[in-house]
Amino acid sequence: MAFAALSSDFGSILNGQAPLSQAALDQMYAQFQTEFSSPSDKLSANRRAIFEDKVREIVAHNSNPNSTWMKGVNEYSDMTDEEFADYFHLKEEQHCSATVRPVASTNIE
After folding, report:
1. What sign for the dihedral angle of Cα 50, 17, 19, 12?
2. How far, in Å, CA of 46 to CA of 83, rounded?
3. How far, in Å, are 2, 29, 37 from residue 41 at the CA level?
4. Which of 83, 76, 93, 82 is nearest to 37 (CA)?
5. By residue range, what is the domain housing residue 71?
6. DSSP 43-68
């Protein structure tokens, strides 16, 4: 599993136990591209910048002693929050039983 490989190879960095260097970011991104990115994504400098920002967010979150859960790198780590929301249609109105709110009765005497 790619996530497990990235997490084990760079776990001490992602958990804030070792410093995050540019060399480590270079290695992480190369492994990320091998495991997750399509060939067209490999040409995008913007994807790399997004990935590096996400890794910094992960390290900051995981280094926080008040965090009760851990973040990690996955196949969406080179997407902006907006791209992620669009990809999963998170901003569209949901029509399922989990998100439907009961309608209050208006029959008041």
Report:
1. negative
2. 13
3. 17, 12, 6
4. 76
5. 2-79
6. G-HHHHHHHHHHHHHHHHHHH-TT-S
Q: Is residue 10 part of a domain?
A: yes
Answer yes or no: is 106 within a domain: no
37 domain-assigned: yes
Count of CB atoms within 10 A of residue 33's CB?
A: 17
Q: Residue 5 CA to chain centroid, in angstroms? A: 16
pTM: 0.77
Whether 44 is covered by a domain: the verdict is yes
Q: What is the pLDDT of residues 40-82, one digit of tens each?
A: 655 688 999 999 999 999 999 999 999 999 999 999 999 999 9
Output the six-digit token pair for 22: 């540019």
